[in-house]
Design brief:
heterodimer, A: 597 residues, alpha/beta, ABC transporter transmembrane region fold, Rossmann fold, four-stranded antiparallel β-sheet, 23 helices, 12 strands, B: 598 residues, six-stranded mixed β-sheet, 20 helices
Chain lengths: 597, 598
């Protein structure tokens, strides 16, 4: 793996694409370049001026000249400092803007994808794309390029000053350069390899801890403390060894850099002394070179750092762009129909569907989730779907909302193919209630309105009253502003159900799609929910995956699903009259509910 | 700072690394500090060489003098290089001892921490979130390590460098030294303040990063709802807001780091300027030489890092103290269920009795069990049914002593459970918890977790009893298939059956199944129960379930409601009773029939 990564190095096209995110900030980037160049010039200017001060003023005893030079030098220091401040902040500012643009673009892209995409991609991976992968680009997008230029210029200016002072001495000083470059890049390579191992060990340690702290009861119940301790010890030991391994490189690198820099100093003294004898070198120049010899190595080290972050950024960039380049979102047609109002007529016409997009469309024998499903629900009518788990009930709901596109057949709302309609308009007219109510962190009110600020508190309260949720909400601390923690785990299942009902009511859609909860709730809540459901269905077209007898009994139409197909249809009386699946179901499932109903 | 006291023990136990290591630190600094003196001598002798050489130019002595000066200059150069090599070697040895020692101590600390975590009971884990404990075991220990290693090392070097350099400088010129040192304390203070501000800001940045992460997590988990209500745009805007908060925090950190630069440049630069200015004036007066100026310039360069490091060290110590305090919280925690030295270890037959047991959850204050009494004769089967929250899990958790009764007593074979060794009781129990927990390891290792030295035959037997064998055989790598993130994702039912196998492989005297068949279908349930039946009479079985089908063959059925026993009897007698159990039975038959339609 390491070989492959090394070979890849820095991909120019990838780099250009990263840099393209700086496009909107071109002006600021050029300003940053100007400031970094000015700072790169002022820094190396100081030893040069010190040389002049020594050779001209100190040697000749000109105290006024000395003071003048010192004040000039001090101003240069301040100017250099201010320039580097402006530069450092500006590059960060640019970088953070670009990162913000990229991050929000990645997020929007992910969110736009169809559920097919979400079914096949673990959420953890998507989180990594929006967070740490984006983060890995921040160095390149902010300081990265500008600093690289700054360091290059610094090296150029220092060399220029040195050569202009004394070419021979400059040459001798720079002779250690290759050694320095070699040492630095050798170190960076080694450390990167060592770090890869360290990171692996850290990850191992973390996942062991994560797993064993979560499953500590199991360890204790099964009396495995000793074995797990020794396993932990091994991992902990590997972790330690990996770190000790990296210490070795650091322990070697820092002294080597120091030795090389001091070697340059030794050479300056030796060669400088010899040059002085031939009468061409002053002490001021020698002192200037002593300073340059130290200053020279800092930009080299920075450059190798930058090179490293550039490489790790490449990996992150590749993953991000891969994601951005694959689009599995539901495609709208070019000029979709815009819907203000709907009547609420729903029709499924010979619908075939499979979650596998590669499925051969014409193969009737393949593993279809829905096979040739047709039904019609007229405006204001209700349809109840019954059937065993896996019969395809939930799929019907997902298809109506166009979470997935079907392979064969047509789904129509008000006589229009839903693929012709603007997606948001279609969904805005359908209210969905799922079995597992998903609550977001935020207030009760936010969870009812889904942060739609157009919905006023009065309408929220009105909806909650109509549903019968106002009772428990008003008993909560802060009532409608009560913060829902940890996705509503502090609320009971029934309460969460009621909240999701209120959500529908406040959005007031023409069509209601409902996946009734199977789990039994206590009788008191049961009655409230019963009442709430009646309120919800009144005057709306509704499709319900039914578990309650009353829902089924009162439905205008019942669809009995079995293995992806419609087995029976009709209303309660009709289906009871035909001695089929429904009747068996009814006799078994609903009889003792009659007492409650 | 007192929290750091327990660490002294570790310093002592690694003294064979610390003592030579810190001596190396001293040696390395001393070598480095000699370099400027050599430079000064060289620079001061160069004009002498030059003037002598010029005086004898053209005489026969010229070439002799040139060779002599050449050799002297080479010696100066070589001494400088030699000194830096000496300093380098000791600095290498210093890191290889002190920093390595800090890794050893880190290792020891972490082992001790994990050992302690293993000894702590259930209630401790209710109080501490997993994420929090992991943070302590990783980043808090790392903070402490930085104090143990780098901080001590930097301090030693800094003290030696500063003390020696300042002494030498004072000998040369007290006046110049005083002026030159003016910016140094300012530098240390500035580093300290900046480091502190940077920490505060980067912690805030880290927090916002978590917010961002959980925001994405939440939105993507609830993507169906968002899409159904066409709330994507609003949610994306909410994400924009959090992203812009993140940008704001990043920039507030960047501001400090950027503002630090001019402070650093001017403080360090003005030290050099003072040397040139004051030193130049003194040189004009003939009090010092130009070589001294060069020497001072190098001293200033040598002292910059150690002085700045002192500022860092202070924040390092502060952070380490806070982290160590958090670690001590764990180290000082006492297991509420003490380990079992000296307790009784007679073979367990499997009789269980509850005598007026009550239990109130310490946090929520909910009375989970209210005066519960019953007897389970060895080898019999008891089933516990009841609604969610009726106290079933609390009840069974008392048998392996995950919890202890606050009132009343639990008896094992007629003896109070507290008088028997904990590990002894647990070794007799096969426990299948409600929430399945498997390790990311192979299927085989997950099953044999219950019995370490189990062979292949036994693993297969346990898998067969839990009706898992057929499934495993279908996996490409069979029992060696990895479970979890690195391997395949088992279905809920497969996970549950693996968890059952893990309990069965122990051939336990007592088998506890806490709603352990909830994720398997009725047919599988039937198969597993029929396997269990083979051991009837030899093994005490406690089954908690919502399902009547799983409990109807039990010798005794206990119905719990709000922590009290409201009905007890066998299936037939409870049906006649027409109470809670009977109504549950009727409701549930339909589910089975539904599945039978398949």
């Amino acid at each position: 793996m390491s070989k492959k990564e090394e070979k890849k190095g820095i991909d120019r096209r990838l780099l250009l694409r990263i840099i393209s995110y700086l496009g909107p900030y071109k002006g600021w980037v050029s300003l940053a370049f100007v400031t970094v160049m000015m700072a790169a010039f002022l820094g190396p200017l100081v030893p040069k001026l010190v040389q002049i001060t020594i050779d001209r003023d100190i040697v000749s005893g000109d105290a006024d000249g000395l003071r003048r030079m010192i004040s000039i030098l001090f101003m240069i220091l301040v100017a250099e400092g201010l320039l580097s401040f402006v530069n450092a902040y500006m590059t960060q500012w640019i970088g953070q803007q670009a990162i913000y643009d990229l991050r929000t673009a990645v997020y929007r892209h992910i969110q736009r994808q169809s559920l097919r995409f979400f079914d096949g991609t673990p959420i953890g991976r998507l989180i990594t794309r929006t967070t740490s992968d984006v983060e890995s680009l921040s160095q390149v997008l902010s300081a990265g390029l500008v600093t690289i230029m700054g360091d290059l210029f610094k090296i150029i200016f220092i060399s220029w000053f040195m050569f202009s002072l004394n070419p021979g001495l400059a040459f001798v000083t720079l002779s250690v350069m290759p050694l320095m470059l070699y040492a630095t890049f050798w170190f960076k390579r080694k450390v990167r390899e060592a770090y890869r191992d360290t990171r692996k060990q850290v990850a191992r340690l973390n996942s062991f801890l994560q797993e064993h702290i979560t499953g500590m009861r199991i360890v204790q119940l099964f009396g495995r403390e000793e074995e797990e301790m020794s396993r932990f010890d091994r991992i902990n030991d590997d972790h330690r060894q990996a770190h000790i391994h990296t210490i070795f490189y650091y322990a070697l690198f820092f002294p080597i850099v120091d030795i090389v820099a001091t070697t340059a100093l030794g050479l300056v003294i030796w060669f400088g002394g010899l040059t002085a004898m031939s009468g061409t070198l002053t002490l001021g120049v020698l002192i200037a070179f002593i300073q340059y010899a130290r200053r020279f190595f800092e930009p080299i080290r920075n450059l190798s750092d930058q090179f490293n972050t550039l490489q790790s950024a490449m990996a992150g960039a590749e993953r991000i762009f891969d994601l951005l380049d694959t689009d599995e979102s539901i495609q709208e047609i070019d000029e979709p129909l815009e819907w203000e109002e709907v009547e609420g007529r729903i029709e499924f016409r010979n619908v075939w569907f499979s979650y596998d997009p590669e499925m051969d469309k014409d193969d009737d024998e393949a593993d279809w989730i829905l096979k040739d499903v047709s039904f019609t629900v007229n405006p204001g009518q209700s349809l109840a779907i019954v059937g065993a788990t896996g019969a395809g009930k939930t799929t019907i709901i997902s298809l109506l909302l166009r979470f997935y596109d079907i392979q064969r057949g047509t789904i129509l709302v008000d006589g229009f193919d839903i693929r012709m309609v603007r997606l948001t308009d279609l969904r805005e007219h359908i209210g969905l209630v799922l079995q597992d109510v998903f609550l977001f962190s935020g207030s009760i009110r936010d969870n009812i309105t889904l942060r739609n600020t157009a919905l006023k508190l009065e309408s929220v309260v009105k909806a909650a009253r109509a549903i019968g949720a106002s009772g428990f909400i008003e008993r909560l601390p802060d009532t409608y502003d009560h913060e829902v923690k940890e996705r509503g785990m502090s609320l009971s299942h029934g309460q969460r159900q009621l909240l999701s009902f209120a959500r529908v009511l406040v959005y007031d859609p023409r069509i209601l799609v409902l996946d009734e909860a199977t789990s039994s709730v206590d009788t008191e809540t049961e009655e409230t929910i019963q009442h709430a459901l009646e309120t919800l269905m009144k005057g709306r077209t509704s499709i319900a995956i039914a578990h309650r007898l009353s829902t089924v009994q009162h439905a205008d139409q019942i669809l009995v699903m079995h293995r992806g197909q419609v087995r029976e249809r009709g209303n309660h009386q009709e289906l009871i009259a035909t001695d089929g699946l429904y009747r068996t179901l009814y006799e078994l499932q609903y009889q003792d509910q009659e007492v409650e109903a | 700072m007192r929290s750091l006291k327990p660490l002294n023990f570790y310093y002592w136990s690694y003294k064979r690394l610390f003592v030579p290591g810190l001596l190396c630190a001293v040696a390395s600094s001393v070598f480095a500090i000699i370099v400027p003196m050599i430079v000064r001598q060289a620079i001061d002798s160069i004009p002498r060489f030059v003037s002598t050489y010029r005086a004898f130019q053209g005489t026969p002595l010229e070439s002799y003098l040139y060779t002599d000066f050449f050799i002297s200059l080479s010696v100066f150069g070589l001494i400088i290089i030699g000194l830096s090599i000496g300093s380098g070697i000791f600095s290498f040895l210093m890191r290889q001892t002190v920093v390595v020692a800090s890794r050893h101590i880190e290792y020891d600390l972490r082992n001790r921490l994990y050992d302690q975590l293993q000894s702590l009971s259930h209630d401790f884990y209710l109080e501490h979130a997993t994420g929090d404990l992991i943070t302590r075991a990783t980043s808090d220990i790392e903070q402490v390590r930085r104090y143990i290693g780098p901080a001590i090392m930097y301090t030693t070097r800094a003290v030696v460098t500063i003390v020696t350099a300042v002494t030498v400088m004072f000998i040369i010129s007290p006046e110049l030294t005083l002026y030159t040192l003016i910016p140094m304390p300012l530098l240390a203070v500035a580093v300290f303040l900046v480091a502190k501000m940077v920490h505060v800001r980067s912690d805030e940045l880290q927090k916002q990063y978590s917010v961002l992460t959980s925001k994405v997590h939440e939105a993507l988990s609830g993507i169906r709802v968002l899409k159904a209500y066409a709330r994507e745009e609003r949610e994306a805007e909410a994400f924009d807001v959090e992203s812009s908060h993140y940008r704001k925090r990043s920039l507030s950190l960047a501001m400090i780091e950027a503002a630090w630069r001019p402070v650093f440049v001017t403080l360090v630069g003005s030290s050099t300027l003072i040397v040139v200015w004051v030193g130049g004036t003194l040189a004009m007066a003939g009090e010092i030489t130009l070589g001294n100026i060069a020497e001072y310039i190098i001293y200033v360069a040598l002292m910059t890092f150690p002085v700045a490091a002192m500022g860092f060290v202070i924040t390092m110590v502060q952070r380490a103290a806070a982290s160590m305090a958090r670690l001590n919280e764990i180290f000082d925690a006492k297991p509420s269920i003490p380990s079992s030295n000296g307790a009784e270890r007679t073979p367990i037959k499997g009789g269980i009795s509850f005598n007026n047991v009550s239990f109130r959850h310490p946090h929520s204050g909910v009375l989970a069990l209210d005066n519960v009494s019953f007897d389970i004769p060895p080898g019999s089967t008891v089933a516990i049914v009841g609604r969610t929250g009726s106290g079933k899990t609390t009840l069974v958790e008392m048998i392996p002593r995950l919890l202890d009764a606050q009132e009343g007593a639990v008896l094992i074979d007629g003896k109070n459970i507290k008088s028997v060794a904990v590990d002894h009781i647990r070794s007799a129990i096969g426990y299948v918890p409600q929430d399945v927990f498997l390790f990311s390891d192979t299927v085989a290792n997950n099953i044999s977790f219950g019995e370490m030295d189990a062979g292949v035959d036994e693993i297969e037997r346990a898998a067969a009893e839990a009706d898992l064998l057929e499934n495993v055989r279908e996996f490409k790598e069979g029992f060696e298939t990895f479970v979890g993130e690195r391997g395949i994702t088992l279905s809920g039912g497969q996970k549950q059956r693996t968890s059952i196998s893990r309990a069965l492989i122990r051939n336990p005297k007592i088998l506890i199944m806490d709603d352990a068949l909830s994720a398997v279908d009725v047919n599988t349930e039937r198969t597993i129960l029929s396997h269990l039946r083979k051991h009837f009479g030899k093994r005490t079985i406690v089954i908690v379930s919502h399902r009547v089908s799983a409990v109807q063959d039990a010798d005794q059925i206990i119905v719990l409601d709000d922590g009290r026993i409201i009905e007890r009897g066998n299936h037939a007698s409870l049906l006649e009773n027409k109470g809670f159990y009977a109504s549950l039975y009727h409701k549930q038959q339909l589910e089975q029939e539904l599945e039978a339609l398949e």
